[in-house]
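Sample entry (340 residues):
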Amino acid sequence: MQNVLRRDGTPLWVRNATTNQIYREGIDFDSIADQVMLGNNGSYPIDHSAPTIHRKPSGAIQNGDALNISYAHALSTISDEVGSGQAMVCLSEDSTYKILHDQNRRVEALYHPKRWFMMHDEIRVIGWDSACIMRNESSSQLLTDNVKRVYADIQGTHPSADVWVWSDMFDSLHNAGAISYYLVKDDLAGDWNQLSNKITIVNWNGGFMSQSLKFFADRGFSQISSPYYDAANTIGMRDWRKAQEGVQGIRGMMYTTWQQDYSYLTQLADYAWGIAPYIYHVPLDSNALIALHGLAGSLKVMAEILPDAYDPSDKIASPKNGGAEVAVYPISTCNKVPKP
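Predicted structure, serialized as tokens:
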């Protein structure tokens, strides 16, 4: 009975394997609880000793009886290099919302934050325990109801809060497609229709950047892209910066690292503020042109043509005005017109 859960939504049954007699906890056998889980406040070793069942001498269970035991357990769905994992909360348990409500109030009291980030992301188990089954709703309905309740609690805590959420569980091109994601009981297709577009989407769909950005933009969402992911290069930053060009509602780019590596923060800042191959020029002025070149309106300009600072292969080879080549005088060689 490793990781056994004990709450109203996770009933435990002990039956006689031969007669199907149901035994009573505390009367026929001692109470069952995973003390390792209970004693570690949500962070505990997955592989630990499970509780065992002990019959009460005064109860109905006899030595030699074969028992069938049915119980719900916390399921770890991801492991890291040290063997840790993650278990999902239940979207239907009142205790989930009591914990969130308490945490929201304490965050507000400590920080009074203007922006709140809801951590709906890679939810790998939905809809299997009794609390969810009894609602007779789809996984999409369970998730969208959860988002509405969490969003409402944040608004109740901080009415002017600017609220963000990760993109993947509401993206038809990501984890909210027509195929079930991990152990989500059924698919999440359509859940994006129930998400308030007052919430800002933090988009991390690196496999379908342009399509995903357009998907949310078409539904009126503001978005923030989230490149980097500890890649030790600027390729992802550059690709996101290009993909979000021309998309309505882009609010910025978020440096995203799981390894606390901020060595590329400057590069992301450069991309976020517009790095790319570009022409840095002095605004054309007829008097300056006459003085420097003898003829106003000639196709000669003072400019620096700069490549992408982190990808020199991306550069402007020959600037043109319409179809005509433009003669460029580097700003650095022009002492009559100050460099801006």
